[in-house]
Structure prediction request, 65 residues.
Amino acid sequence: MDWDEARPALQKAASIGDNLETLSVAELESRVAAFEKEIERVKAELSKKRAHESAAAALFKKPSA
Prediction:
């Protein structure tokens, strides 16, 4: 017996633009959940960066004359 055949196939990371026709309903639902989780992670990082940018702008803002 070949061990490569006995080992479950590794799932590749979901990417935007992948062919979806060959995926099952469960696989599509899994992709949606993974993308939703990634969206939340990106939004959290974006929020932190915007707060940092705003703080820096306030710090270096020219005083009113």
